[in-house]
Every structure is written in structure tokens, then in C-alpha cells.
Amino acid sequence: MHRLSRLSCGVNRSAVRQPYSNRLDRDTVATEAKEIFDANTRSLKELLCQNGLGLYIPAYQRPYGWDKAKVSRLIDDTLHGLAGLASSPDTFTFLGTVITIHDTNFATVHPAVRSETPSKVLTVIDGQQRLTTLLALTACLHAQIRVRHWRLFRGSQPSVEDEALTYLHDQTQQVLAPLAMSFAEVQQYGDVRIYPRMIRAFVDQWARKRPNNIYDSPLAHLIFDYATRAQEEDASGTRPTDYRARVRDEDVSAEGEADLVRRYADMRGYLNRLAAGEAGAEDMEALPPLAVLAADPGLQRATLGHEMPLAASSYLQEEPATSAAELARLLILAAYVLNRIALTVVQGKDENYAFTIFESLNTTGEPLTAIETFGPRVVRAEGLGEYSSSPARALFDDVKSYVEGFRAGDPRQNATRDLLVAFALAETGTKLSKRLADQRMYLKDEFERYVHSPQGRYEFLTSLRDTSSLVRSTWADAAQPLPDLPADSTTDTIRLCMSFLRQMNHSVTLGLMARYYSRAVRATGEARLDAARDLEAVLKAVTAFTVLWRGSRRTTGNIDQQHRELMMGTDNRTGMPRIARSKRRAEDAGMCHELPSVTALRAELSARLASAGGVADREQWLSLSKSLPHYSISTTLTRFMLLAAYHDSVEDSGDPGLLRQGRPDANPCLNWQSWNKSELMTIEHVAPQQMNSPGWASELYADKELVDRLGNLCLAPKAVNSSLGIRPWAEKRVLYRALGSRTHEEALAQLEAAQERGITFVQSTEELVNASHHMPHLVAVGQRSEEWNVEFVDERTERVLGLVWDRLRPWLEA
Questions:
Q1: What is the pTM of this model?
Q2: CA distance 625 to 234
Q3: Residue 230 and residue 385: Cα distance in Å, rounded?
């Protein structure tokens, strides 16, 4: 019976098979599944004591970061399993699944002395935190057993007549050998024969000769330092060092070293207490009493693999010397760790399959983002020696700093996903799925096209960096300026359009924006100013296209597909070339395509709006839009349309209740400031949404959608919602006139006149006056003295839609 540790991962057999169901032919699933991965459950000794085994941590793996609680849990699980052997000799402590690649060609090993690399390299995709902890534990056990052995024997052989001590001496050697082999392997020849069992990419290198042997990562350094000292002490017969790991000086210390050193110190403390017969910690089990261990042949067979000789068993049951008791306890614990801690080791065919398996098995872990796994490819392409000073590093560091600004887990994964979806669209026009495996594959495949082209790699990383710069700045918060451009380049219109598109969740436009933004960033002199102006014109065109497309239908009308076709250059009505930087074709790699002009983009968007969208002119726009309940379709879209209609509009004195276009700057509304004004924040229903509201014609509710049409809507100050409420039309129009008055004095006069007529307000007159702001659209509504009826709502809807068209359609014209 296996005890599933609290550190273990859940295994879903069907989930393991599922990722391949759409890739493999049914007749070959069984055969190819064996080639894709192999899974075996092994004891720690079976896994780590293989001759020629090297465990390899890829550079994208996070630094060691286990806290004290996790180490305590691991040791407590071990103690619980050991205690369970007394009643169940089949007990194991199972620590979950480790995902690896059997790197037969050393493709993941960098740097490497190929002829001196271990013959079997397993690259660790998942499980490096557990393996690091277990290797540190076996090294710590090795050190503490050597110390206890010296205290008991002082470097001398026991008398052969003393069977008990002879057994302890011999058993120590039998346990120390596999313990030592678990964390390091001693080579048969060479200047440096000690190979740490696990090393890290880019900072470590297995080698038998100095100075090629490099062990600078926290774990490799700890293992090499301890194993070297132990080897020297054994050779000279000197007293063993009670080894204590140290953090190196700042100039050589590596990330994660402080955590590893602390955890090693915790283990040393636990082992000292356990050796003394105490509990490892307050909430941790103690080892079973030594008398019980020494008297139980079944437990001895389960841990040591044999029964103790009678002399040794009797000696240990009769309160032996402290040093002997402590040594015996640690020997039994070490034997359990080696033989009864188990891991399932999955060996994947390659990195992509290994990650897929990991994501299928993983239920509690934290997968690495596609950006994290992409980093080592950038380093390898530039070269280890050249990377630190290369432009590639500066570009990639910018991207990393963006995604690492999000909390690890879902927030970081989601941010990386959104970035890469936008980047793939900008780079190749590709619709990248949200699956992590597809994101990793896309970055790998596209970047490898430029493996022999430094300029191609630079362009690729620049495109990725520029996309992340845009996503992290004005797109995320329109109050932020566009980075790497003059401050005045981030115009009011750019802020307005980006804020609108973001609130519409129209992220498919990011790829297009990123391309024109990137051109502006990379331009110089007058060309940069022109490119920045082009970026604003592009945003206006995209915004107008979005409003006129979405405002003329109940659904999105698959508008995202229109943008993807623009990026790919497929089915373009005007023959405009694609906007994406390159194609996904090997022969096209490295080619940077000239961006279409703003004029060409406007023409293409206009043509698509007419052909695919069915909105060729003002008449078609009105015909498609006038019956739509825009409020229930999208409040963000509705608010933008109302602001567009109000922009520079004034009351129509010839048609009370309606607006008409005024002179320029008569009433600026379509801007960033108005988009954020509290006075224009709330969409108000003139005729209330509730049916049978007093003072309103029942015909208004015959068509349940009519109250949500633009003709029954207006923007009003958020602060006066409670006063507007569901008042009768005769009272509401008075309040509209007051709230839209040119001056506070005028507003006060109208409110006082209303009170004299018996109209009361929820808020005080002072509050209402302070909320008033000159708003011609409210004044216009308040000027209608006739009944608010169906005919007028229809008329007002057409007038508002006409103003929207007249304001936005020019944004699509050359």
C-alpha cells in the first residue's frame, strides 16, 4: 500500500492520453504512445544511483524556492512512512511525478564538454524543487552519519569480537556508499572526478579536467564542495567536518542559494534531533523508538534489506551508548530514504511532449510560462559568452520584466498568453491559441527560422519587445504615455481610442497597433513625427470601423476575423498587402515587410465595412442600426456613440428635443477628458426601463427593446441617478434642463421654479446645482414640451445615429 504524500501530484490516466488524440492515427496510437513517453516508479536509490546518470535543470526553471514548511512536510511524510512499516511492510512514501526528457543527443545541455558529459542525461521539466531537496537531504544524511560514525569509532576499526559494533561499522559503509552515489558520482579518471548528480544549464558544466568543470549553481556548488571535503577527509583519515552550507559572496552567489542554505540548515537541525530520539519539530513525528526498530525483523528487512544479527539487535535494545544509538537511528532513516521514498519518473520523447505530459498530470504545480521557457533559446542563439552584452538581452529583459510584474500563477500565465496572442498576430498574422503548449511551440518554431540570422533574431525580438511595451503602457492604462516616443505623441485621441478598444475587449486590434507603434519607435527625426501622427490616424480608423461595424448589428459579426485577414493580407478588397511583419514560410524568414500607408488602411477598412459589413453609406447605416437596442448590446459602445453624437452638437431650436451639428469647438465631447468625466459617465434612460412607470405612455413598452435604443438614452451625471429615477416625463424634463444649464445660477433658478410647482428631489438643491454642467444634449431633451412617445424616440434615434456617422465616417476617409 502506497501512502500518497501531501507533496504528490494527482495522476489522471485519461488526461495523459488526451493531448495526442488529435495528432495520432488510431491504428498507431499504441505503438507511438510508447515512443512518446515512458513512466516508471522508482525508489530514490534506483533513480539516483545509476551509473552515468546526470540530472539537468534547464535555464528556464525557476531558482530553488522551497520554504521550511515544505521541507518539514517532506521529512514528516518520511517519518510517517517509516513508522507505518511496523504494521504494513509494503508502505512507501510516494513523492509524486517527475517529468524529464532523456536527452540522448545532449541537445539541452549548455555548455557541455560532450565527451565528458554523463552518458544518460535526464533534463528535468518538472520536479526540480523536490529533487533538489532530496539531493540536499541525502548529502546532509551522509554528513551526519559520518560525524556519528567518527564519534563512535574515532577512525579505528572495531574489534572483530565485538559483533554489535562491527555490524554498525559495516552497515555504515553499506549505507554511506549509496548515499554518496545518490548526490554525486565519482569518475574513474580525470583531474576532477566528482560529478554532482544534478547541475543547472548555463552556470554549470560536467568535466573531468580543470578549469572546464564548473559548478556555480547553488545545488551543484553545495554538492561539489561537500563531496570534495568528504573525499579529502576520508583519504587522510581525519575527523569528518560537520558540514554547514554557506552563502557565497555576492559576486559569486546565485539566485536561490540563500533558500537552499537555509533549508540545508533546517535538515541538519531535524536530523540532529531525530538522531537524539526527539521529534524533528513540534508538529513532526519522531523516529520509532530504537528498541522497537532493533526488535522488529520485518521492519529491518523493509528498510535495511536484511535482519540485524542477534548481537546487534540485543545491543541496540539495551540502551547503548549515545553515539551508537544516534548512528543506528540515522542508518535506519537513511535506508528508508534510499529504499522507500519513491518517485514516478516520466521520460518524454522531447521537450514539447514532456511539457504536454506535465500539463496533463499537473494539478497543483505552477507551470512555466512560454516566455520563461523561451529564454534559453535566445541565450543559445546569441552564444553564452556574447549574450550578456548583446542587444538581444536588452530586448528580452524588457519582455521578461513585463510578465514578471504579474503574480506567479494564473495572473502571470494570463498576461503572457495575452501578450503572445497579440504578438503572433503582429508577427505573422497567426491566430495563436490560448494553450500553453501552442504558445511555447510558436515561439520556438518562429525563432528558429532566424537561428543563422543575427539581424533576423534582432527584428523578431524587437517586435516582441515593442508589442509588450504597447500592452504594458497605454493599452493597460490610457493615462500612461506610449514608451520610447516623445510625450506629446500620446495624444488625447490616442488615449480615447485605446481606452475604448480596451473596454470593448477588442484585443484583436493590438497586433495592428503594435506594428504601427513599432514603426514610430524605430523612426528618427521628422519621420518619427510622421509615424506618430500615422499611429493616431490608424487608431481613429480602427475605432471608427469598430463602432460602425458593431453599431450596425446585434452580435460582433465576427469582426475579429476581419482584423486577422488584414494582418495576413488575405481576401483584401483593395489589394492592400498584409500588415503582419512576416509570413510563416521558411523562404520568407527574415523579410521585413513595408507597412501599408494610413491611406491604404483606411481604404481597405472602408471597403470591408461596405462589402462584409453591409455599411456602404449613411442610409445603410441608419437602416441597419435604428432598430437595435444598443444599450443591451454594449454599454461601452453605446456611451462612445453618444459622445460622438454630442461632439460639437448643439440644441436644435427648430426641432425641440433634438441635436444638430454646431460649429467646431462648440461642445467638445469626443475626447479622453470627456470619456472620464463623471458628468458623462452614466447612461440614463429617459423613459424608464420598467414597464407601467407613472407618467409614461404605455405604447413605449409595446416593443420591449425600444427603451434601450439610442433615442431613449442620454448621458447624465452619475451623482444624480437617485433624483432622476423613474419620475414622470413632466418632472424629468425640468431636471434635464437644469442639469444641462450654462451656469449654476440658471440651474438654481430652474430648480427653485420646479419646487414652487411642487416638484421634489431626493437630493438637495445645492447638490443638484453642483452636479450641473453645460450639456447641450440634456438641455435639448428638456426643451421638448410634447409627450415622450414612440415616434419621437424613433426620430431621435435616427438623429443620434446620423450624428455618429457624420462624426466617425471621416476617420475612415483619406
A1: 0.74
A2: 88
A3: 33
